[in-house]
TrEMBL record:
<keyword id="KW-0378">Hydrolase</keyword>
<protein>
    <submittedName>
        <fullName>Aminopeptidase P family protein</fullName>
    </submittedName>
</protein>
<dbReference type="GO" id="GO:0004177">
    <property type="term" value="F:aminopeptidase activity"/>
</dbReference>
<dbReference type="InterPro" id="IPR036005">
    <property type="entry name" value="Creatinase/aminopeptidase-like"/>
</dbReference>
<keyword id="KW-0645">Protease</keyword>
<keyword id="KW-0031">Aminopeptidase</keyword>
<dbReference type="InterPro" id="IPR050659">
    <property type="entry name" value="Peptidase_M24B"/>
</dbReference>
<feature type="domain" description="Peptidase M24">
    <location>
        <begin position="219"/>
        <end position="418"/>
    </location>
</feature>
<dbReference type="Pfam" id="PF00557">
    <property type="entry name" value="Peptidase_M24"/>
</dbReference>
<dbReference type="InterPro" id="IPR000994">
    <property type="entry name" value="Pept_M24"/>
</dbReference>
Length: 434
């Protein structure tokens, strides 16, 4: 096993506090390609990508309309602004962060009103004891924001006020083009008489996410290594008689012990945590694990032999590893997802393997599959994406055959470089034998 240097969590968190992890150059290029003057952002994953802050309200009120927003402009793609409530800015956003250009409001609503509120106190200082360092920081950050501009009465007013101040609202002589990632924002634009072009731009944000900034590459490597170590611990703990449920529980614990949050574990083709099945002696099974660190996902799969596998299962595991190695050697800028599938199938044919494997390339980042999609009647179809330097991808290589004595899979995360690719986590043998 070849290990990579460890990354300090405190350093990564400090860098997230300084700026959002997104790739500024790619953001500028995508906005130019789409012809956008600005993108107004409401979805939590996109707010985090832009600002390095996952809105707290998105965790406590899942599925409800957003209350924290970001705005990216083509004019200054390196200076996103924050739009949020004065309370959330004081009580959650300010913690650990320095001042950022912020447009604050008091009421989560849009009444068509652009009026401002006075600076009534939030969490007033009673003076009974000195303010803690955290309290001092909150008051200072809030005061800085309100010294620049007073808070709006409601969220709609703050969003419109921000777009106007940023110079992207436009007028009768100069129409602008504003993208958004949530229909809620289209409604705000319409209610306030926006006369430019308003369009859905979630795919534009996904295009930006394809290319990882240096900070994102480090966050991905940190997440990936912990995920690999957690799955390896589970794999070596597998024993005949163990239940799939026990393996799920163990993975959650092993991921947490390494600072990751478990997302899912596929055990022998089953992702259900309620699966009642148990491991049998002589079984081959794959473990496919996904967990995240600061919302960046690791994705890793290996085959486990519990005792002596059947000849068919051993051959399948060999085929998955051989095909992935062949694919990995061919990965470089310009290769498309369709090319990857073809390369994998050709490798199986050349190697003489009579095994069915589903080669599934996907960009990985703020989700297991983090990439734009093609519209298919309101649904999304997977596009034939061409690899570019700075992408981080995985290629799923699960064996799809049944009746062979189990299952097999082999998968790693790689960064696409100028002339090839490199693995972002430690290297491991394709099979774990227990």
């Amino acid at each position: 096993m070849n290990r990579l240097p460890s990354l300090c969590d405190d350093d990564l968190l400090d860098r997230l506090n300084e700026a959002g992890p997104y790739h500024v150059g790619e953001a500028a290029a995508v906005m130019e390609r789409w012809g956008l003057d600005a993108i107004v952002i409401a979805q939590p994953v996109n707010v985090f990508h832009t600002l390095g802050h996952w809105p707290q309200i998105a965790r406590t009120r899942m599925g409800q309309p957003a209350g924290t927003f970001a705005i990216l402009t083509a004019r200054q793609p390196d200076r996103p602004v924050l739009v949020t409530s004065r309370f959330l800015h004081f009580y959650t956003y300010a913690d650990g962060r320095g001042p950022r250009d912020a447009f604050l409001y008091d009421d989560l609503a849009d009444t068509g009103d652009l009026g401002r509120n006075g600076d009534f106190p939030l969490c007033p200082d009673k003076g009974a004891a000195p303010l803690s360092t955290m309290e001092q920081h909150r008051f200072a950050t809030s005061a800085k924001a309100l010294q620049t501009r007073a808070a709006w009465r409601n969220a709609g007013g703050a969003l419109v006020g921000a777009l106007q101040e940023l110079g992207v609202w436009g007028d009768d002589l100069h129409a602008t083009r504003i993208g958004w990632d949530d229909p809620l924002l289209a409604g705000v634009l319409a209610r306030h008489g926006f006369t430019g072009e308003s369009l859905a731009a979630d795919n534009a944000l996904r295009e930006i996410r394809l290319i990882k900034s240096p900070l994102e590459q480090d966050l991905m490597a940190r997440a990936a290594q912990a995920n690999v170590d957690a799955l390896s611990a589970v794999g070596h703990a597998v024993r005949a008689g163990a239940s799939y449920r026990e393996l799920h529980a163990l993975f959650r614990a092993e991921a947490a012990a390494r600072g990751n949050t478990a997302v899912f574990l596929n055990v022998d083709r089953s992702s259900s945590e309620a699966s009642p099945h148990r491991i049998a002696d002589g079984q081959a099974l794959f473990l496919d694990a996904v967990s995240h660190f600061q919302n960046y996902h690791g994705d890793f799969a290996r085959t486990v032999f519990v005792g002596e596998p059947t000849r068919a299962a051993a051959r399948a595991a060999e085929a998955a590893a051989f095909a992935w190695q062949s694919v990995r050697e061919a990965l470089k800028p310009g290769v498309t997802f369709a090319d990857i599938t073809a390369i994998g199938q050709q490798a199986l044919h050349k190697g003489g393997y009579d095994v069915m494997i589903g080669f599934g390339p996907h960009s990985c980042g703020l989700a297991h599959t983090d990439e734009p999609g093609e519209d298919a009647g309101g649904f999304w179809r997977k596009p034939n994406i061409a690899l570019r330097e700075g992408m981080i991808i995985s290629v799923d290589c699960p064996v799809l055959d049944s009746g062979i004595g189990g299952s097999a899979h082999c998968e790693d995360l790689v960064l696409i470089t100028a002339d090839g690719c490199r693995q972002i986590h430690s290297t491991h043998e394709p099979v774990i034998v227990v």
